Amino acid sequence: MSKDEKTLVILTPGFAKDEADSTCLPLQQQLLIALQEINPLLNIIVLSFQYPFRTEKYPWFNTTVIPFDGRSKGGIPRLLLRRKLMACLEKIHGETPITGLLSFWYGECAAVGKLFAGKHGLKHFCWILGQDAKKENKYPRRSQLPAGELIALSDFLRSEFEKNHGLSPSHVIPAGINTRLFDSSIKTKDIDIIGTGSLIRLKQYDLFLEVVAEIKKQMPGIRSVLVGKGPEKESLLLLITKLGLQSNVILAGELPYTEVLDYMQRAKIFLHPSSFEGFSGACLEALYAGAHVISFCKAMDLEIEQWHIVKSKIEMREKAMTILAAVPARNKKVLLYTIEDVAKKMTGLLLQSY
């Protein structure tokens, strides 16, 4: 390792199991690639606490990933996991001195990051990414990271964290997209409404289907696609049948990341009915894909073109119908933040000299 090389350690609950695993935390994957591109001498090591379910380290592009197969166990296994993590960090620091640590989510990763960074006088930042800003999260009270070590994914999460934990994160670094992954040859907008994400209750995809059913009354041929997997799949299939949407909704399941982007480029509207959202990268991707976004949650304080914030299912339906009725359908790409923007901001925090 030359004197110009720097080592950055990423602490995360999970990470891609191999280079073909494009669906596991795509934002974080793209960030690491961008960090390496703008910092060619950067040595990135990922410690993945819970997933993949193995313990052999492996290369991921130009990154080293060390998984610990924690499987979200509590009690003694969790204490043993923390010991293994601390021992691993000590070994890394002894071989290639660590410049900084970045924890994804304010949870066990942040607790380990703070403990090790404090012991060795290193830089440590925690990226608050979503539900970790909620009041139910006990880690902020336990770990008590100072505001200067906290990065919120959005203005909303900064406010939410301050409201729930009495401390305003000093930094806001939003999600960004990799524009190079979009297929410029896709021109046809043959999908009226699309949604993507984990099929869990928080995402409220039952409302997605109910909105489509209401619109179908005036647009019998409406075409919609829902991409993702999760525990709510069977209940959503039953609701599709109950609402008579078998010919109007495709449950596409989990798809490779680039295929999801292709679907977005074919869509007129990205419908995002989640009840809580830090800053959905999928919304940014949909905007750049030329779709309108409709959601309940407003991530940033600024107004974003073609992103419509509504307060109810009725407003969501009415806004969608207004957009679909427009002739011709708009197809303007809206670019808010690139993944390179995110990487540059992270570099400024983590890798600048003291």
Entry summary:
The protein contains eleven helices and 14 strands. The protein has an eight-stranded mixed β-sheet with strand order 3-4-2-1-5-6-7-8, with helices on both faces. The chain has a six-stranded parallel β-sheet with strand order 11-10-9-12-13-14, with helices on both faces. The mean pLDDT is 95.
CATH class descriptor of the largest domain: Alpha Beta
What's the number of structural domains? 2
Indicate the radius of gyration in whole angstroms: 21 Å
Q: Runs with pLDDT <50, length 5+?
A: none
Q: Please name the CATH topology of the largest domain.
A: Rossmann fold
Instruction: Please state how the strands of the largest beta sheet are arranged side by side.
Output: 3-4-2-1-5-6-7-8
Helix content: 25-40%
Largest sheet: 8 strands, mixed
CATH architecture heading of the largest domain: 3-Layer(aba) Sandwich
Mean pLDDT: 95
Total DSSP E strands: 14
CATH homologous group name of the largest domain:
Glycogen Phosphorylase B
Tertiary shape = elongated
- The class by helix and strand makeup works out as alpha/beta
The end-to-end distance, rounded to whole angstroms, is: 20 Å
Number of helices: 11
Question: What order do the SSEs take from the amino end to the carboxyl end, as H and E?
Answer: EHEEEHEHEHEHEEHEHEHEHEEHH
Proportion of residues in β-strands: 15-25%
